[in-house]
Each structure stands twice: as structure tokens, then as C-alpha cells.
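Our preliminary data section would be incomplete without showing what the modeling component actually yields. Below, a chain of 196 amino acids is followed by its predicted structure, encoded as C-alpha cells that our downstream tools consume directly.
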Amino acid sequence: MTDPPQGFQPPPGKKEMKAQAAAAKAYHKSQSNWFARHKFLTGLGALILLIVIIVASSSSGGDDAVNTTDGGSSSNDAPSNDAPASADAFGTPIRGDKFTVTLTQSSACAKGATACAFKAKYENKGNENKDEFLASDDFKLFDKKGRSFDSTVFEALDIQPGSSKNVDINFEGLPADFEPDRIEADTGGADISIKF
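Predicted structure:
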């Protein structure tokens, strides 16, 4: 047998061809953009970022009230629409930033009562859908001894413009020595405080 000419290399075998192809693929992959290689993670990250931006922009309403340091009134001399309710405010609409809320008594809430019931009417007088989640601590009933009682309400409201919804607000399991003093609510952007 004769020796092959100088500089001659035998053709690569199947194993060597696979190794060269894998090396070329790895090199190409390492040269491509990370975002292009990880499409799912890129999409998921973009979705999470979008959700964070939406939540941050919707929850950062800020306080639009004008603060005057000299005790005077602001440039807008109109009466405030979100002032707390007065002593005889059952049935008086209180305008909040989301809804106009009207609180009425459903049953007598008197000395010795073991339960008290109220109705809250939520009206959307705006131009867009508004929602509110009512929880038990949104409404508090106080007695003459200064004790507070949470309501049993848990309800999600989604009210169309020009519509309203009535919600039952119940206080149950009141002690035998209960004597009502006031009911307070911070709901729908309206601060309500009504004395009995």
C-alpha cells in the first residue's frame, strides 16, 4: 500500500459530521438575540410588566383636594359633595368619588337589639362602569359603650352608568346590652357617619 499524498485528509465520517453540525448549531444559537431564543419568557415578562403598569396607573388616583394653609377656602367656593353625613342623614344621598351612596334603616336598631339591618343604595351617576368590593369592615356600628361591630356584607358591585344597586347591610350577634350610637361607612369614596 502506498502512502496518501501529503496534505490529503480522508473524508469525515458520520460521527464527525454530526459533531461539526452540532458545533455550528451551537455557535449560531449563541450568536442570536436572547429575546428571540426565549420567546415564551419574553412574552410572559411583557405581560407581567403590562399588568403592573395598569394596576399602578389605576390605583394612583392621588388626592385632588386643594389644601390652603391660611384657613381660607379654595378657589372653588361650591359646597363639598363628599362631606360626612349629618345626624339626620338616613336617606340623604352622599356623593363619593365612585358612587352616590344613600343609607336607610331596614329594621329598628334600638336598645337591646341583637341585630340591625340597613340598606345602602349605590348609584353610578358617571359615564363609565364602576366597581366596588364591599367587605365586612366597610360598615361599622358603634354602641354607647364605644364598642364597634362589623357588618356581614361581602359583595362585589359592578354598576353601569345611570344604574343603581341596593345592598343589604346586616349587623348580627349584637350583645344584650347593646345601645346604638352611630353607624360609619367608608365605601364607594363616600365617608358616612350617622348618629342615632
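Helices lie at 14-31, 34-37, 39-59. The two ends are 118 Å apart (CA to CA). Preliminary results of this kind motivate Aim 1 of the renewal.
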